[in-house]
Design a protein that fits this description.
It contains four helices and no strands. By secondary structure, it is an all-alpha fold. It has one domain.
Length: about 80
């Protein structure tokens, strides 16, 4: 079964079943993976903070950020 076929089938499940499945999938992720992911996000946030400290002109306001987001409708 292809990932596309599996995904389409899963998206057709009722919301409560999708949420339960998502919970089970998340619970199956090893704890050390989450720690590594958290450390990677923290390193990225620190890197970006250092960039902004070095050149404050790169910062943007919340309004500027939101204005730059384009939302695409799901097919």
């Amino acid at each position: 079964m292809s990932t596309t076929t599996l995904t389409q089938g899963l998206f057709s499940l009722p919301v409560a079943e999708r949420v339960a499945l998502a919970d089970q999938l998340y619970a199956s992720i090893p704890e050390d993976w989450q720690r590594e992911a958290d450390e990677a996000w923290l390193a990225e946030a620190s890197r970006r903070s250092s960039e902004m400290d070095a050149d404050p002109s790169t910062e943007m306001s919340h309004e500027e950020f939101v204005a730059g987001i384009s939302f695409k409708a799901k097919p």
